[in-house]
Amino acid sequence: MKQRRILAIIILFPFSLLSLYAMAEVGYIGLFEYQLQSPAGWQVLADLVVALVLVLSWLVPDAKSTGRNPAPWVVLTLLSGSFGPLLYLLTAKTKTVEVGAQHA
Prior knowledge:
The chain has four helices and no strands. The protein has helices at 2-35, 39-65, 71-80, 83-91. It starts with a helix and ends in a 13-residue tail after the last helix.
């Protein structure tokens, strides 16, 4: 889990800077308007939707199995894209492994 957290941090920082810059330039709605201008943009937007649905198909069961409410993460993902899963990974509790535990 520690590796996932480190990866989330590494991705989240530059992605946040890029997202802030893009939103400062075109605004939140402008991010979508740009993608809707051509079939290439439609494809990129559709690809993002497919990828996020796949991520949510992992995130929701994982949240439930670890005792976390998946609803805030789903809403955050729907409103902000990859920020939802990245922050989910960043805030995940680390699992402790009992010393001497045997796995079959």
